[in-house]
Design goal:
heterodimer, A: alpha+beta, ABC transporter involved in vitamin B12 uptake, BtuC, 2 domains, 5-stranded antiparallel β-sheet, B: Rossmann fold, 6-stranded mixed β-sheet, 6 helices, 10 strands
């Protein structure tokens, strides 16, 4: 770890990875909430058009990619709002138009499509000081907005019509969300790469929702997962000389896979913790009768009162209480 | 607090077309402060369209809407309005009950400011009012349909509205929920809140309703006391309602016919 920090390019790379891990899930939370999980992918392709333009004109790629990405995102969002294009057709046009323009422009610039590879999959060694400044400033803007306006963005992303009856300027908030997503995608092209950045916007959010309850908690948890996987993946890719984007995304997916059994355990513990404990334990060892036919599936929150009974929960209804055991219910 | 007799909602000659088909044809409706109005009519008569139009969620082609005397276009005082939609994406899960309800305070909050103590109190009070204090931190998706509907009511109450608009709050929920809803509405009305509620049938809210407005084929077929509605029905009024339903069915067929004609050579 000490060794890795002694290289200036790795210091810059790790800061870039940290910032990407912070902002991608922060904006991704709202993108996922709006059911636009694949938006980041389309924006990645538009960023490629920006990179192609930068290669052709000899300008720095990140600022051009940010501008191209934001422009593409705003156009698609406006088309969607005016009802001119459905979400998926707009995304499809982003995908193909951006990719084609990127390959075309890099081709006539003389670099060729192969020159785009470092932007597609991330290349930590190429993060410059200027890049880092830009990423830092924009990351602060994104965090201030995604955390500071969380109540407004939450309302707009979950229930647009209700948000309008609260006097919120829903269209402007929608444009803000897709614009910030566009900035995030363009900024992440050095670390995760344009093809995989969308994963860092979506996968930590999905994993967080498995393990914590509530929107705010999931937002914070997703950011934590994003930071850990982005920094972990950057460090790991340095040691085993792998593409950082691929490593980061595989780590995030590993966290997501682990979140399933974890969510199961957490739910069981929570259910046990909130139930009142049953005092008489005599009947734990007493023989009990079995109910074979019970169409209703008891579960926490099913509406029937539950009590904690030793190592399980009993559900009370119609004057008796029982618990599920294999394919039948034990009467207690 | 509004003076009694002032107008919470006034719609005049409201005409709305959706997809080229007229849904509302010149509707006029007004609700005074503290008044409870039931909006009734068959499926497709335009109830939900009317409600969503007066809230500015759908554009209208002709006529005007005023909220508390202010034209809809320039109305900014949204904290005075509470809206309980029929369905909400907020119910799909991933949010705690208190997070959903907190959205009802947004009209009173400024950006970049945390919840004030007033906000927190209003949120807790609203949740308590609908009897869900135990479920404060539950995931919304874990609640029953009736409880979810009550969360949407609490969300609207959290803003302490002077006009509460509910779109079919009693459809598909059990009697227990309807009883809670009736209690909540009675309490609000005694405090002077105006209520516009879309109902399929009057049901357990009957005792609270001052006036029933019945829509038929996009027009007002009846506007008067609920009791008159019964007579209206008895003396042939309900034929009129049925006629309204038939007219809408005809529209559906027309639309199909038109589409069919467009697709087939």
């Amino acid at each position: 770890m000490i060794e890795i920090l002694s290289y200036p390019f790795m210091q810059r790379a790790l800061i870039a990875a940290l910032l990407t891990g912070l902002i991608a899930p922060a904006i991704g939370t709202y993108v996922v909430q709006r059911r636009l999980s694949l938006l980041g992918d389309g924006l990645g392709h538009v960023a490629l058009a920006g990179v192609g333009l930068a290669l052709l004109t000899g300008m720095a790629p990140i600022p051009i990619a940010v501008a191209a990405c934001v422009a593409g995102a705003v156009v698609v969002e406006m088309l969607r709002q005016r009802g001119k294009a459905t979400g998926d057709i707009g995304l499809a046009i982003l995908f193909y138009g951006g990719l084609a323009a990127g390959v075309f422009l890099s081709g006539i610039s003389g670099v060729g499509a192969g020159g785009l590879a470092q932007y597609l999959f991330g290349s930590l060694t190429t993060v410059t000081r200027d890049d880092l400044m830009l990423v830092g400033v924009l990351a602060i803007v994104i965090l201030v907005i995604t955390l500071g306006l969380a109540p407004q963005l939450y309302a707009v992303s979950t229930d647009e019509e209700f948000a309008r009856t609260q006097g919120l300027r829903v269209r402007i908030y929608h444009i803000a969300v897709v614009s910030l997503a566009a900035v995030t995608v363009a900024l992440a092209m050095r670390t995760v790469g344009l093809l995989l950045v969308s994963a860092l916007m979506v996968v930590p959010v999905a994993a967080a929702r498995n393990v914590v309850r509530g929107f705010t908690a999931a937002l914070i948890c997703a950011i934590a997962i994003g930071v850990i996987t982005a920094v972990g993946g950057a460090v790991g890719s340095f040691y085993i000389d792998a593409a950082p984007g691929a490593f980061i995304v595989l780590l995030a997916i590993a966290v997501f896979v682990l979140s399933w059994p974890l969510s199961y355990l957490l739910r069981r513990r929570r259910a046990a913790a909130i139930l009142p404990e049953l005092v008489d334990d005599d009947d734990l060892i007493a023989p009990h009768t079995i109910t074979e036919n019970h169409p209703h599936q008891h579960a926490p929150g099913c509406g029937h009162p539950a009590v904690r009974h030793g190592d399980h929960a009993d559900f009370i209804h119609e004057g008796h209480r029982h618990a599920a055991h294999a394919d039948h219910y034990d009467e207690h | 607090m509004l003076l009694d007799g002032s107008t919470a909602l006034a719609a005049d000659d409201l005409t709305v077309e959706l997809g080229g088909l007229p849904v509302l044809r010149g509707i006029s409706l007004s609700i005074r402060a503290g008044e409870a109005v039931a909006l009734m009519g068959g499926n497709g008569s335009g109830k939900s369209t009317l409600v969503r139009t007066v809230l500015g969620l759908l554009p209208h082609q002709r006529g005007s809407v005023r909220l508390f005397g202010q034209p809809l276009r320039s109305f900014r005082d949204w904290a005075r309005i509470g809206y309980v939609p029929q369905r909400s994406m907020a119910l799909l899960g991933g949010s705690k009950v208190k997070e959903v309800v907190a959205a009802g305070r947004l009209a009173r909050r400024r950006p970049f400011r945390p919840l004030s103590r007033d906000d927190r109190e209003a949120i807790h009070d609203a949740i308590a009012q609908v009897g869900l204090s135990q479920q404060l931190n539950s995931d919304i998706a874990a609640l029953s349909g009736g409880q979810q509907q009550r969360v949407l009511v609490a969300r609207a109450l959290a803003g302490k509205p002077e006009l509460l608009v509910l779109d079919e709050p009693t459809s598909g929920v059990d009697l227990e929920h309807q009883r809670v809803l009736a209690e909540v509405l009675a309490e609000l009305m005694s405090a002077g809140t105006a209520v516009l509620v879309v109902l399929h049938d009057v049901g357990s809210l009957g005792g609270l309703i001052d006036r029933a407005v019945v829509l038929s084929d996009g027009r007002v077929a009846h506007d008067g006391p609920l009791g008159d509605l019964g007579q209206h029905r008895r003396f042939g009024g309900h034929e009129h309602l049925d006629h309204g339903r038939t007219a809408i069915d005809d529209h559906g067929e027309n639309a199909d016919g038109w589409l069919g004609g467009a697709v087939e050579p």
